[in-house]
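Re: that backbone. Tokens:
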């Protein structure tokens, strides 16, 4: 048996209660035409309608509030076009937006916010504010200008490329680089990376770490990505990525998006160009300048060498014309010198020979003098001759024979007995 509490209110159906809530929300002040700032999440399209969750987080990423939201088809077409026209981006998850909403409660689907308008300027401003905070932090750490201060090689031929391998921007870069009109040679190596979404920053940092392991093989790094929505490029406004690029020891060339697109990397990289094709054009132009300088220097060297050769050729012709007479003069002088030298040498040689012969004759003379009869006579001996013949035996001389006796000094005539 059903029990009833005395004086208790009559129960209502759940539908009745939800209708009361819906009516209360509709009639409540401050719940309609309210501008709300939030971050989008789980955004999806169905039947032309746009469904999403609006989320508010604290600085640590903790969710403080969350509500389902919808932009009906006719409203979504209008606000999506408005957002794209001002930001160059499409509405998607994980971006901050400012929207005008009406609070709504449905008996079946519960509470939600119905979006009626959007302020694209807030999203653009939020990206700019985030970018400025990152730049200020890098400036405070003293690394903002590090990569910009690195000198680019005058011949940046060895290039490390960070890009999505199948991206059209990468193909444009390679085609433009290798089809340069002067057929300049480049060496490129691709380090594939995610270039969109939340994995962009860690993927590019990983590619930079791989390049660091081969750093001596490259002159510079090129980070390229084709154009896209502002929100597509928001991944490049990341502190960790910007810090790694700013402190990388090789010059980094950034060619991301279109000319109007700007990210934090554009402020920290050594060189910023507007597109991947412009990055290739920049490298080709640097090489052409180097080639021009080389041609100028080569021309100067050629002129100097040609002038030197011409001078030597003239001098050689002069010598060729004057060489016979020069040689004859030399020969004549040598003849004179040789004759003079020969005469002097012959005279000196003759004097030396005569001197040696004189010394030899003197020695012979002394010897002969020592053994000559005269020397014997000077020692007291004498020579007796008969008719000019020396007599050695007295018995051979007859008595009364005229004899001649030779002394050391003088001759004595006598008769033998």
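Recovered sequence:
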């Amino acid at each position: 048996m059903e029990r009833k509490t005395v004086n208790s209110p009559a129960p209502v159906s759940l539908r009745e209660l939800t209708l009361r809530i819906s009516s209360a929300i509709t009639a409540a002040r401050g719940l309609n035409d309210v501008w709300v700032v939030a971050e989008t999440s789980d955004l999806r399209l169905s039947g032309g309608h746009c469904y999403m969750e609006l989320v508010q987080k604290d600085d640590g990423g903790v969710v403080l509030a969350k509500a389902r939201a919808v932009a009906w088809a006719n409203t979504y077409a209008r606000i999506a076009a408005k957002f794209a026209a001002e930001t160059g981006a499409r509405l998607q998850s994980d971006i901050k937006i400012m929207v005008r909403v009406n609070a709504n409660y449905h008996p079946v689907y519960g509470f939600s916010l119905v979006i009626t308008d959007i302020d694209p300027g807030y999203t653009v401003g939020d990206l700019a504010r985030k970018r400025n905070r990152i730049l200020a932090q890098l400036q405070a750490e003293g690394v903002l200008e590090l990569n910009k201060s690195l000198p680019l090689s005058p011949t940046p031929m060895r290039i490390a490329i960070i890009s999505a391998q199948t991206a059209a921007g990468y193909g444009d870069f390679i085609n433009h680089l290798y089809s340069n009109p002067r057929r300049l040679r480049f060496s490129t190596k691709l380090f594939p990376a995610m270039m969109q979404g939340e994995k962009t920053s860690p993927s590019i940092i990983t590619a930079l770490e791989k390049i660091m392991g081969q750093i001596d093989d490259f002159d510079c790094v090129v980070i390229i990505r084709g154009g896209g929505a502002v929100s597509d490029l928001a991944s490049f406004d990341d502190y960790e990525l910007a810090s790694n690029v700013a402190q990388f020891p090789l010059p980094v060339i950034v060619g991301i998006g279109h000319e109007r697109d700007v990210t934090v990397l554009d402020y920290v990289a050594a060189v910023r160009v507007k597109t991947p094709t412009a990055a290739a054009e920049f490298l080709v132009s640097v090489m052409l300048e180097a080639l021009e300088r080389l041609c100028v220097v080569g021309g100067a060297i050629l002129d100097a060498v040609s002038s030197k050769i011409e001078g030597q050729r003239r001098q050689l012709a002069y010598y060729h014309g004057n060489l016979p007479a020069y040689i004859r003069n030399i020969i004549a002088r040598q003849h004179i010198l040789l004759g003079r030298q020969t005469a002097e040498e012959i005279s000196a040689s003759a004097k030396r020979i005569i001197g040696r012969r004189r010394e030899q004759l003197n020695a012979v003379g002394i010897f002969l003098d020592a053994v000559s009869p005269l020397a014997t006579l000077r020692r007291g001996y004498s020579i007796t001759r008969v008719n000019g013949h020396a007599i050695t035996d007295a018995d051979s001389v007859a008595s009364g024979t005229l004899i001649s006796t030779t002394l050391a000094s003088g001759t004595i005539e006598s008769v033998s007995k």
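The radius of gyration is 61 Å. The longest strand covers residues 34-46.
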